[in-house]
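not sure who needs this but someone in the group chat was asking about HTH cro/C1-type domain-containing protein from Micromonospora haikouensis so here u go. i didnt clean anything up, its just raw.
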Amino acid sequence: MDELPVGRRVAYWRGRRNMSQQVFADRLGRSKSWVDKVERGVRALDRVSTLREVAAVLRIDPDLLIARDGAVGPEREPAADGVEVVRAALTRHPGLLRATAAPTDPVVYRARVAHAGATYGHGRYVDLLRLAPALLVDGHRLAGGGQAEQLLQAYRLIAFVLVKLGAAELAWLAADRALAVAGDDPVLAALAAVPLGQALRAAGRQQAAFETTIVAAHQVAPLEPGGGTAAERAACAAALLQAALAAAEAGDRSTANEMLDDAAAVIEPGGPERAAVDAARVATASMLGDGRRAVVAHEALVGDPGWQRLPIEHRAAHLVDVTGAYLRVGDAAGAGGALLHADRLVPAEVRIRPAGRTALAGALAAASRPDPHLLALAEATGVAR
């Protein structure tokens, strides 16, 4: 990829996102002819602001369009290396792993998965990538039966972090493995459908993401209000939220709102999942182009006690994602403040995650006089203004 001209890189990533030239042009507010000329090299992409717009629509870091030497920056190199190690681990078929070495102690493995979960929840993504290969290998050597939930959780965590780092197809594979581990258990299947929905959305397959998550949610949904176990309700709500996000990305406002309302109806009114539903409402409003509603809902959310119940990773990711809503309403200072807050919580969300770097570039471009702290963050991260 590093030797390809910019236009060819645009065409490559557009194909990866399963967008036609017309759809891509519509999202950019350009003509199909303009896109065709860019991809053929007839028209140069020589303005930084335009490059950022293109990268934002493609959901990639602008550096992927302009880098010449293949470097990813000092903070992102360990993440890139870690993704490749996980890729190698996922390439080994699980059926070949059971016959070698001693069985894994399920008690010890449970503790390791819990540690991996805490690592992800605190936004230590590179550390999780280091843990991932051994978790995968040892998970398929678990002694005794009934260990599906632990191996499934390992696959879920790996899929989640791969989505964050822009490896959608690899995340898709990990999530698909999780779904296979779930077997006939509807709760485990719903839990596996969540990262699968994320991976499909990141790959530009919103319809497939919606269908996968809505089917999983319906299989575990309680038959009456207040029915079902807490695990069933939580799994159902999580799958419904993914369905809502997929519908919003496809521009289907009514379906997205219906899914959000269904998720809110499943969980306890004052339960810990309430903040996750509220965060999803912010995200869907932003995806649907309603920046003002997204900003108002976001500011209400961070002022609510439920905000602190979200994992640090979730809060930081939300702050990165809401940047677009602030920019849509012309509030560059609000966008910069959200990114600085995210960086304080989980530096990797802004410094390593492609979406965070793209958001940082957008906030800098929109600010006539950027906050000095934002400029320092950009310098440390290697994001050019």
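also Residues 245 and 284 are 6 Å apart (CA to CA). if thats useful
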